[in-house]
Please model this.
Amino acid sequence: MSRKKVVVEVDHIDFAYDGNLVLEDITLTVEEGDFLGVVGPNGSGKTTLLKIILGLIHPTRGKVRVFDESPERGRHFIGYVPQHANLDTSFPISVTDVVLIGRLGQAPVLGRYRKTDRQAAEEAMRETEIYDLCNRRFGTLSGGQQQRVLMARALVGQPELLLLDEPTASIDGRVEQDIYHLLKKLNEKVTIMLVSHDLGFISTYVNRVACINRRLVCNPTEKITGDVIEACYGGPVHMLKHTCEL
Model:
């Protein structure tokens, strides 16, 4: 059997803010086709790890390779979904226009979007099941709908890796379930690395979990034990595994 392509390789990295160690000796490999959940308590370094993979900040020790390139070069193959939209909801921008922002790195510097850009936007909106909202104003959408728009914006550049930072933090449980169903479907085409606060929920969908609390423990989902969770969270944690009604 041929070995899967390595998408992200994190090799013994440290990172500190103002001398305070946030990540310590993190080693992690993400392979093509993975659906990796990154979980841990608040302030454990999960978002910092995503920023390092994106090349937005640099480790104080160790190396990172993204598609066998530096993070700055490799991030062109990444779609990123932040926790919050960072868009003024009072601004009259349509769903289609928000999605097209994800093509700015590929569209002409001057002039209008090309036909191929608009075709890619339509495909991304259909993939995330929001094409019927394409002419709606972004600010009028529900939290779950807005999150799907951000996912379409990340997908419109046709990335090979999708990074998501707490994509369901501000939406209710039923909508959260729908989002994870969608991500599981998208994982058939794209590698996914997802930061979440809810180990019980994501364990239904992901194929690996990385528990991070400054240091990291990574296991297949079925091997996540109470001892692993306690080591990650620094104490007993009740893990509720959600079931999905179909």
The first strand starts at residue 6 and ends at 17. The domain at 1-35+51-81+163-221 is CATH 3.40.50.300 (Rossmann fold).
